């Protein structure tokens, strides 16, 4: 196991008995606002210390890793992780590019994120979606040598936020591609249908706890989703693709 967690609790925000992530696994985490997704990702990334329980990375307790070493083996895209510096996109990303890297943005990243077209623009002049694509690129460049070798570990907290639909699916495809090379990626999402169709394992959270985890079709059931999201869902499967539609809130009264 690349990563494991046992009997972890953090105040009233998180209470999880056991989780693990295998090498090459693509994990999507879904749940309503306040479910504990961000807290879980920050804990697994070693940026929040658990009150109880243990988190292991590559067989070593998370507490034994220095932040500098962690930064070289795993990366995190946090929500609202924006730089306020007056820099161009090119200048900003150059801080995260390995010295022996042939291009600023590797072709596979550029194909999915399409950042080069505005690389000379100042960060503060970008639209929300453009800025999000830059931040995703920055997070992946941080450990790009490891990702190229298939040894990377990435935590992406709501990376689809602000992206148009084409770039949402391009990013989901990129994440799936990187995992197929042996990398392990965990990302939170509010797009249930996209996540169910682009992950190996789906984790469903509610009120700081794990409600269900495992194969997407076993987790994204009508019973589970209606219990957690308090909406009516219609779920069907066509050509191995899960179609998940929200019909209506359960109650507005």
Detail the topology: elements first, then pairings.
Blueprint: E1 3-10, E2 14-21, E3 26-30, H1 37-44, E4 52-57, E5 60-61, H2 67-73, E6 74-77, H3 89-94, H4 107-113, H5 128-142, H6 144-149, E7 153-156, H7 165-180, E8 184-189, H8 192-198, E9 201-206, E10 209-214, H9 216-219, H10 222-229, E11 231-238, E12 241-249
Question: What's this model, at a glance?
Answer:
This protein is an alpha/beta fold and 253 residues long. It has helices spanning 37-44, 67-73, 89-94, 107-113, 128-142, 144-149, 165-180, 192-198, 216-219, 222-229; strands spanning 3-10, 14-21, 26-30, 52-57, 60-61, 74-77, 153-156, 184-189, 201-206, 209-214, 231-238, 241-249. Helix 4 runs antiparallel to helix 7.
Question: Would you kindly provide a written description of the structure presented here, covering whatever features stand out?
Answer:
By secondary structure, the protein is of the alpha/beta class. The chain has a single domain, classed as Rossmann fold, CATH 3.40.50.300. It is built from ten helices and twelve strands. It has helices spanning 37-44, 67-73, 89-94, 107-113, 128-142, 144-149, 165-180, 192-198, 216-219, 222-229, and strands spanning 3-10, 14-21, 26-30, 52-57, 60-61, 74-77, 153-156, 184-189, 201-206, 209-214, 231-238, 241-249. The strands form three sheets. A six-stranded mixed beta sheet has the order 6-7-8-3-9-10, with helices on both faces. A four-stranded antiparallel beta sheet has the order 2-1-4-5. It has a two-stranded antiparallel sheet with strand order 11-12. β4 (52-57) and β5 form a beta hairpin. The longest helix has 16 residues, at 165-180. The N and C termini lie far apart (46 Å).
């Amino acid at each position: 196991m690349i990563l494991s967690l046992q009997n972890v609790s953090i105040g009233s925000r998180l209470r999880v008995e056991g989780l693990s992530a295998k090498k090459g696994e693509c994990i999507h985490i879904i749940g309503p606002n306040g479910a504990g997704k961000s807290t879980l990702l920050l804990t697994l990334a070693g940026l929040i210390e658990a009150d109880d329980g243990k988190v292991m990375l590559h067989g070593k307790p998370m507490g034994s890793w220095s932040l500098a070493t962690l930064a070289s083996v795993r990366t995190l895209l946090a929500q609202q992780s924006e730089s306020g510096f007056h820099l161009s996109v090119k200048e900003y990303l150059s801080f995260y590019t390995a010295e022996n890297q042939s291009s600023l943005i590797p072709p596979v990243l550029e194909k999915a994120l399409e950042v080069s077209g505005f690389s000379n623009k100042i960060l503060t002049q970008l639209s929300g979606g453009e800025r999000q694509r830059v931040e995703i690129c920055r997070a992946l460049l941080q450990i790009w040598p490891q990702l190229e070798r298939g040894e990377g570990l990435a935590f992406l907290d709501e990376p689809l936020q602000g992206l148009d639909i084409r770039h949402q699916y391009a990013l989901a495809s990129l994440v799936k591609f990187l995992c197929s090379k042996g990398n392990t990626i965990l990302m939170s999402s509010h797009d249930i249908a996209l996540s169910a169709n682009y992950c190996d394992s789906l984790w469903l959270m509610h009120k700081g706890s794990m409600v269900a985890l495992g194969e997407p079709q076993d987790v994204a059931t009508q019973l589970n989703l209606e219990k957690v999201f308090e909406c009516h869902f219609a779920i069907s499967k066509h050509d191995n693709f899960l179609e998940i539609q929200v019909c209506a809130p359960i109650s507005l009264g």
